[in-house]
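Holo prediction — FE2/S2 (inorganic) cluster.
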Amino acid sequence: MSTDQNEKKRPEIFSAGRFSPVQEMEVFKVTADKSVRKILLKRKDGKAANAFKAGQYLSLQSRIGTSLVARPYSIYTSPKLAEEGFYGIAVEDFPGAFAGHWFGQLKEGTTVRVAAPLGNFVPDGQKEIIALAGGSGITPFLSMAAAIADGELDLDLTILYGNTSREAEMLQEEIAALQEASERVKVISVYSEEKDKEAESGFPDARLVKKYARGDYEVWACGPGPMYDFLKEDLPQLGLPAARIRMEMSAVTKDPELLPGYPPEAIGERYTVKVLGLQDVYTISALAHEPLSATLERAALPFQTHCRSGVCGWCSALLEEGEVYCPSASEFRSEKERFEGKIRLCTSFPLSDCVVRLDGEE
Ligand code: FES
């Protein structure tokens, strides 16, 4: 457990100016679907939910005990549904995890705070996208498919959807309905551990892109971390310019000790982190294997966190003293940020005692 020496002076949740506008939403309907629970969120005041572009994600925020937490989830429903006050997300339960388990257990009627939709994984003029999806990574593509079916996106979308087997494939009902609704949407199942006449075998990869691409296409990918490692080796054989390959880095960074370059001497260590930039100075205890974002959440300190994968930059902070480990696959800082000593809390693991100044504060 983190120790917070200024417990009585904790800033109130979401009241600080550093938080983006949030909507109060109710968990309206929960439906179990394979390894996920489909959650339909409804805006509590009955108004339209904040508009979004197909491919964007939401950041759900809540207080768990004394901690303030946020986790990102891609929207799989149509932007049109937001006009009626709804978003659909697919949430996986992680029983051993802290916030991942809490959000995975959300019940109908619960109120959550939802930050305005974010993310740049949105079509911007492409005519054909070959989507490589792994597991729950299909969600942003389903939202795009829904927007195509609604006539809001002018795009041909072929989704190569990777799972171990048909049994593991989630959101089958939605997939069938969207293919029915638009000839421009195709979903090809790809199973790695099962032979099926109606599906491809193996993984969504360059071989299958070549088979299904028709015209002037781009390749977009969304899935678990190992899928990106594989695709970085595999996709270059397509000979596409880098700008025509996009990967949604939605994987939360965890288990740093398994990643390249992590110093073994830090395994199991605990450090002290001094946090500056709030009304008071906070000194909290940090575990080496947790990103600093989790450390600050446990101590109920307010800061912006959305993507949890180092991409959005909202959790930027200045590392005034100390050393952190940032996995190379999660390194999205600009050269300028690195030169200035900026870190992203969600992808920074402490390797020593640290002093961190939250961004935007002098
Ligand atoms: S929450 Fe997006 S970079 Fe950390």
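READOUT: The radius of gyration is 21 Å.
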